[in-house]
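Take a record.
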Amino acid sequence: MIPLHFYLLVAAALFALGVYGVLARRNAVAILMSIELMLNAVNLNLVAFWRYLGPQQVNGQMFAVFVFAVAAAEAAVGLALIISIYRNRQTVIAEDVNMLKW
């Protein structure tokens, strides 16, 4: 049986990689992919804690399903916004999108 801290280390590495991707990338699609990576790290934590703390209940799995639903909605709305911005500005570089500035 794999110890809990191995799962937590993998999830922390995935989350750190996602944070780096959000902060370092300029492409809006890459930023969305990094956010998805962070949500998957959270799901890994939820399922790992569920497995080690209360496997007779389904709390961790239900939270993970909820996070999957939020991630799907985030991806759909985010990609729709990126497509709309690309049609108007012909760029997906996050720094070039300044529609809300006066």
In short: The mean pLDDT is 91. The helical segments are 4-24, 28-53, 59-89. The chain is about 75% helix and 0% strand.
